[in-house]
Design goal:
Layout (H helix, E strand, L loop, with lengths): L5 E6 L5 H13 L3 E6 L9 H8 L10 H6 L2 H6 L3 E7 L1 H9 L5 H8 L4 E5 L3 H5 L1 H12 L3 E2 L3 E4 L5 E5 L3 H11 L9 E6 L4 E2 L5 E2 L6 H12 L3 E6 L11 E4 L3 H11 L4 E4 L6 E3 L20 E3 L3 H7 L6 E8 L3 H12 L3 E6 L11 E2 L1 E5 L2 E4 L3 E2 H16 L2
Parallel strand pairs: 1-2, 1-3, 3-4, 4-5, 8-11, 8-13, 11-12, 13-16, 16-17
Antiparallel strand pairs: 6-7, 9-10, 14-15, 17-19, 18-21, 19-20
Helix pairs in contact: 1-2, 1-9, 5-8, 10-14
Bound molecules: cytidine-5'-triphosphate.
């Protein structure tokens, strides 16, 4: 996948630096070559010897290293690669990048390069969520920097949340996509995600507990395989991924219209938890208590079924994937749902409260296809997304 591609790999200082060794191996396995750059902090976590031995290359460390200036200047070094990859990218390195600092070799290369930059952030969850880091990320996204991860999960520091560096395999996928070599290059995939909000009046609405985490992870995984992704999202708790076309919607009817407008597509993946009903007698003004003690009576109307419409409609994508959130007889209900909705696959999950899946970070899914049911072990939503994206690529690539 990376045949002949040259990757300049900047290894920052974080506990995840050890995963950079596996990353080097995987890049080489995919046919690429690695020129490693180790920051001073990075060299506290992995040694130049192990990095150099694995990369089969000289490890660049210091900006004012005369030997290396004689061999190759920092400007040339920053431009001789096809892609710059920063893994792990610490909060400090991201801040330097966002601020345009050039006070060591890594930051100077990042400022001097004329190539795209892909970063794999890794840091403590509080550092990741800090407004300063989030501001820096916005700046970097605006500069066209590409991101992979961070994943959500248990961290080396014992805390839990987003901040764990993406797995090396996912970084390799993202490198492939950044270089235009992913299996979904040239394919368009529409992904729906999040809950919908159905208004009762201008200030109240009916919604559900979907966080949008699985849909966002899927959109990111499909993007990392090279797909052009249209991400139609209801009001979700998690932010949409970078480098996808985001279409924000509120209601099921808005979502149906946005999906119709996004077609044609090679695949549609409907991960949204669409409200089945809307309030038919929603009020244009805020409902007021009238003093009688009588509660207002809400009437409901059925929403359009977006999945069924896309599956059975004209211009049907080659692959249509639905989700089924069930609390009982998961496989039986999901199998029947696949038939009823006319989609190719159903990704079924058990959302009984005891599973903690709805709104949580993990998922346990069963993939229902024409050839039967396949139950996957419980894993992070990012991992489910990557596996599913890989299956989608198998089904529609070529
Ligand atoms: N879906 C949709 N439009 C709707 C309702 C659901 O596109 N109006 C999609 C969801 O995005 C999901 C799949 O259909 O991919 C299953 O949704 P679910 O709500 O679980 O199924 P229901 O149609 O509500 O079936 P049931 O009420 O029997 O659970």
């Amino acid at each position: 996948m990376l045949s002949g591609k040259r990757i300049l790999l900047i290894i920052g200082g974080g506990i995840a630096a050890y995963k950079a060794l596996e990353l080097i191996r995987l890049i080489q396995k995919a046919g690429g070559t690695v020129t490693p750059v180790l920051t001073r902090a990075g060299s506290e976590f992995v040694t130049p010897l192990s990095v150099g031995a694995l990369a089969k290359s000289r490890v660049h460390e210091a900006l004012f290293d005369l030997t290396s200036e004689a061999e190759m200047g920092h400007i040339e070094l920053s431009r001789s690669a096809d892609l710059l990859v920063v893994a792990p990218a610490t909060a400090d390195l991201l801040a330097k990048m966002a601020g345009g600092r050039a006070d060591d070799l890594a930051s100077t290369l990042l400022l001097a390069t004329d190539k795209r930059v892909l970063v794999a952030p890794a840091m403590n969850v509080r550092m990741w969520q800090h407004p300063a880091t989030q501001r820096n990320l916005d700046v970097l996204r605006g500069d066209g920097v590409l991101f992979v991860g961070p994943d959500e999960g248990e961290m080396a520091c014992g805390e839990y949340g987003p901040g764990r560096m993406a797995e090396p395999a996912a970084i390799v996928e993202a490198i492939g996509a950044a270089l235009g070599g992913g299996p979904l290059t040239g394919k368009h995939v529409v992904v729906t995600s999040g809950p919908t909000h159905e208004p009762i009046d201008p200030v109240r609405y009916i919604a559900n507990r979907s966080s949008g985490a699985q849909g966002a992870a899927l959109a990111a995984a499909l993007r990392d395989l090279g797909a052009k992704v249209t991400f139609v999202t209801g009001p979700a708790a998690v932010p949409p991924p970078a480098s996808v076309t985001v279409v924000p919607v509120e209601t099921a009817r808005d979502m149906a219209a946005a999906v119709a407008a996004a077609l044609p597509a090679d695949a549609a993946v409907m991960a949204a938890a669409v409200a089945d009903w809307r309030v038919a007698n929603s009020s244009g003004q805020k409902l007021k208590k009238d003093g009688s003690g009588k509660a207002p009576a809400l009437e409901f109307a059925e929403n359009p079924d977006i999945l069924a419409t896309v599956s059975k409609g004209p211009g049907r994508p080659r692959l249509v994937v639905g989700f089924a959130a069930e609390t009982t007889d998961v496989v039986a209900h999901a199998t029947a749902k696949r038939e009823r909705k006319g989609c190719d696959w159903i990704v079924a999950n058990d959302v009984s409260p005891a599973t903690g899946i709805m709104g949580g970070t993990e998922n346990a899914v069963t993939l229902i296809t024409a050839s039967g049911a396949e139950t996957w072990p419980r894993m992070g939503k990012d991992e489910v997304a990557r596996r599913l994206a890989a299956r989608i690529a198998e089904a529609i690539a070529g």
